[in-house]
Amino acid sequence: MNRIIYLILLSIVTMLFSCTEKMDIQLDDTYTRLVVEGRFSTDTTVHKVRLTKTSSYFYNNTALPVSGAIVTISDGVNTILLTENPLHLGVYETPASTYGMIGKTYHLLIKNVDIDGDGVKEEYSANSTIYPINKVDSIAMKYDPHFESWEVKCYVLDPPTEDYYLFNIYKNHVLLTDTITEPLVVDDKMYNGNYTNGIGVGYLRDEKPDEKAFPGDTIELEIWRITKEFQKFVMELQDATRPSTPLFSGPPANVKGNISNGAVGYFTAYSISRCKGVIR
Question: Nearest Cα to 272, choosing from 48, 79, 100?
Answer without folding.
Answer: 100
